[in-house]
Design a protein that fits this description.
The protein has 3 helices and 13 strands. The chain is α+β, with helices and mostly antiparallel strands and 209 residues long.
Length: 209
């Protein structure tokens, strides 16, 4: 009986086949953010039920054609999205909550002049005027699970001075993607932790309409 020889797949064929099989995983890998519960600094961070949310508010990598340098942050108020610019024409996109009125939002360019874990929160005079219940926190509120700033805060400075605007977490995850804040930019707690670890002091933040 004659011997039958079967062609042996080349390394290139195998690599191409492996790529095609793995391609869906590669694409899905652009959006692998976890919003599970987690322990951080002695505090518990609650999970976020993403099934009830617009999928586009999840942290994901997207194409970026802007002129900003890699490592800089761009907040687009009208989109209610924050972008951390990466190398290679991409950015990490985060869903955010923005000011409840157009005039409440910070605009222009600032730098991250301070970073805090489980930050202390003191409402500004404008916040207390708009929301009288905040007056009971006029002396400040220590960091913790009920603190409105969440587990991290990035403080925006301009000309060496605190602008009183922050990028921070939230105790109201359902508000992400909405115009709800007193002017600060709020992220899911899991996302502000991610962003905090990625950006150093001095990072440029540009907020546009």
């Amino acid at each position: 009986m004659p011997k039958i020889s079967y062609p042996v797949p080349s390394a290139i064929t195998l690599s191409r086949r492996a790529f095609m099989i793995g391609a869906p995983l590669f694409v899905a890998g652009c959006n692998t953010a976890s919003y599970d519960s987690m322990s951080d600094g002695g505090h518990m961070i609650s999970a976020v039920d993403m099934t009830a949310m617009d999928p586009s508010v999840q942290r994901t990598e997207v194409k970026w054609a802007g002129k900003e340098k890699p490592g800089s942050i761009v907040v687009k108020i009208s989109e209610r999205r924050l972008y951390l610019v990466q190398d290679g024409g991409t950015a990490i996109r985060y869903g955010v909550g923005v000011g409840r009125s157009p005039g409440a939002n910070f605009r222009g360019t600032a730098t991250i002049g301070r970073k805090e874990k489980w930050p202390h929160w003191t409402p500004t005079d404008n916040m207390m005027a708009a929301i009288p219940m905040y007056k009971r926190f006029a002396g400040g509120m220590p960091g913790g699970e009920s603190n409105p700033l969440g587990p991290r805060a990035l403080y925006l400075y301009r000309g060496g001075k605190d602008t009183n605007f922050r990028l921070h977490g939230t105790i109201e995850p359902e508000t992400i993607g909405q115009p709800v804040s007193s002017g600060c930019i709020r992220l899911f707690n899991q996302d502000i932790i991610d962003l905090y670890e990625r950006v150093p002091l001095g990072t440029t933040v540009t907020v546009v309409s």
